[in-house]
Amino acid sequence: MSGSGLSRIHILGAGAVGLLFAAHLRQAGHPITLLLRTQAAVDRFERQGCRISVVNDWMRANPARSRLLAPGEPIAPCAVDDIQAETPAGTHAAIGKLILATKAQDTLRAFADVRSRLDAQSTVVMLQNGMGAFEAIQRELYAHAAAPAFIVGTNAHGCLRRASDEFSTHHTAMGTCRLALRPAVAGSAPPDSALELLTALGALPLDVAV
């Protein structure tokens, strides 16, 4: 699974939703970096092989897929590896493409940790279900500074992460993901990274539409 020719995508928020999108993007060949809260979390991720697993529990409720499963048969996880991890402040390297998948109430604090690594050529996808996060970032962090491009989204996929398996997510129900590119404040054209990220997400088997 080579990421040759594709630029790296950083994911901030390695919960159930962040891991779901990270796994699918990596499976499609995109280089992925998880931005984890602490160096201890980075160390744990590296010790377990730099791997993310997705358990497709939604198959049990799908009439066609459920016929392939014996009663009570466990669903084998789909694992992807060769994923990097770092803390938000672990490096000053620029971030061109960022997916923000933290809880809505944590968005502003988490985003502030990576703000210095973004510029006007960067693109940020916001995958929080909740209102006001985009407006808060604009008001608190970009009132007098050039901002990256922002894509806001709603995610209706059911997924959960169990405390016993930190880097695995259970995809419990198939849903949809809807994305919209926010107009630039100055009316300028979006950077290339915006189209590239929309194209990458739109190609995933997660019913993503713009």
What does this structure look like?
Helix content is 24%, strand content 23%. The protein has 210 residues and is an alpha/beta fold. The strands form two sheets. An eight-stranded mixed β-sheet has the order 5-2-1-6-7-8-11-12. Strands 4-3-10-9 form a four-stranded mixed β-sheet, with helices on one face. Strand 1, helix 1 and strand 2 form a beta-alpha-beta unit. The radius of gyration is 17 Å and the shape is globular. It starts with 8 loop residues before the first strand and ends with a strand. The mean pLDDT is 89.
Strand order of the largest sheet: 5-2-1-6-7-8-11-12
Biggest beta-sheet profile: 8 strands, mixed
**Radius of gyration, whole Å:** 17 Å
Structural class: alpha/beta
Cα end-to-end separation: 27 Å
- Described by the principal axes of the CA atoms, the overall outline is globular
Work out the number of β strands.
12
Mean of pLDDT: 89
Point out poorly predicted stretches.
none
Number of distinct helices: 6
Q: How large is the share of residues in beta strands?
A: 15-25%
SSE string: EHEHEHEEEHEHEEEEHE
